[in-house]
Amino acid sequence: MLSGAFLMPAFSVVTFGCQMNAHDSSRMEEVLLGAGYDKAEGPESADVVVLNTCSVREKAEQKLRSEVGRLGLLKRKRPELLIGVAGCVAQQEGERLLKSLPQIDLIIGPDNIKELPSLLHDLESGGLPRVRTVFDVDEPSFLMAEPSRASSATSAYVTVMKGCNERCSYCIVPYTRGPERYRPAREILEEIRRFVDAGVREITLLGQTVNSYRDPEGRLPVAPHYGESRLKWPRGSVPREDETEFPALLYAIAEAAPELWRLRYTSPHPRHLTPSLIHAHEQIGMLAKHVHMPVQSGSNAMLKRMIRRYTREEYLERTRALTEAVPGLTLSTDMIVGFPGETDEDFEESISLVQEAGFVALFGFKYSQRPYTPALKLKDDVSEEEKSRRLTRLFEVVDAQKAAHLAGLVGREVAVLVDGTGKTGEASGRTEQNEIVHIEAPVGELPVSGSLVSVKIERAYKNSLRGSWLRTLAASPLPRDKIQSAIVTPRGESEKRSDAGRRSLPVV
Ligand code: SAH
Ligand code: SF4
Ligand code: F3S
Known about the structure:
Bound molecules: S-adenosyl-L-homocysteine, iron/sulfur cluster, FE3-S4 cluster
CATH superfamily of the largest domain: tm_1862 like domain
Strand order of the largest sheet: 2-1-3-4-5-6
CATH topology of the largest domain: pyruvate-formate lyase- activating enzyme
Strand content: 15-25%
Number of domains: 3
Helix content: 25-40%
Number of strands: 19
């Protein structure tokens, strides 16, 4: 039935949404390659197409419908084509999707990736469309990444937790990803070691509220300053229950993988920006000097309605303590405009918070009503035009801050982790603060992927920097074939594909 009697079926995974989805797509690819499938060039030449979907905003969900429509046309020409829907829309809609989009053959939730080959096998043998969207709450499992198949050879993402217990009033994620479940520190360290042994030098820890992490096996030694408020918040000390084991995990990683040059994490929740985490930033040299800390709004009234569980003052206090502890650390954030009841004054509070916190990058979103969320009870009373106006203004403010920040780097010497070649053939990479740098070097000295080089910044653009190579600080640890593949597929591929609402991105 499948194309070519002796060929293995070929798959294509199309990713929408956030880094967790991109990460899940990589696991799906590994599971399918492991089951003998081949990777197709794209959906047009695939026997199986899996759409890994996002439902965080209505627009993201619409993308699924238009993509299924497009694939439906292909399916008319090739009725044997199998269409699978994975990710957050799959989990949220389940069976209902099969009714509204009958072209779909398989619906699979984020916790059921392992079952993908067996479900496809059933379908290939003539089985009926299937829905499998069960959270692994009783026995959470985390698929171990396969470093040899990683698309970027220099940087890797490692999941430390999944799900979210926060229940911010606007957000669908707790419904699509389930309750928080944490990965054993033992497994996290093992996966990081595997990546480091394969030449990876930058790790980003992933989780919906990554800094609420706790080791389910309870094996992590206590982090320094755990439960103590050495840094006193003016509004009172952080209660002991607010501490997590995330800083302890960071120390354990630094000890288990000293070869790492950079350690990042995304996305943290401001509630868990604790004194011991700030202390970890002071102590652990490999922790990058950039943190993406979603704030959502600068108005206390909105933060309360959003159920964010911190105030504007607390957010500023905590991030200020962090930037004071680590000079040069930059911050980026997520913000929502036009949340129900957001007045001009509330919005101005968001603008002033952006200025006070000094964000150098921001993802801004227009509020979008989501099914099952508590905010549905509130009237979506800010007009679409007003939301657009506020978003434009927000971007203007942050773009000016970003431009000033980038311009301030001209003339400075920075360390860049090279991760590919730019459009014009020169090398490019990222600084510790996550700025993109295009590097010029004399012929024959062009730094290769995976190397850490010192660069003198000569020009600042809107979203990136240009500089000249000064010297190599550390040679690339990558094996030769990985250096080649890193050049062909520079990091950032998944970012380009991610949700169109996102702009000029830091790490997420
Ligand atoms: N777990 C992460 C982010 C999850 S979703 C965190 O809490 O930081 C990414 C971003 O999408 C959120 O930070 C928020 O800014 C935005 N978002 C989530 N739900 C939204 C909605 N209903 N409308 C508009 N933006 C939303
Ligand atoms: Fe959504 Fe809030 Fe959880 Fe982030 S912390 S995933 S915004 S519920
Ligand atoms: Fe991510 Fe979108 Fe799901 S942001 S967690 S893919 S709803």
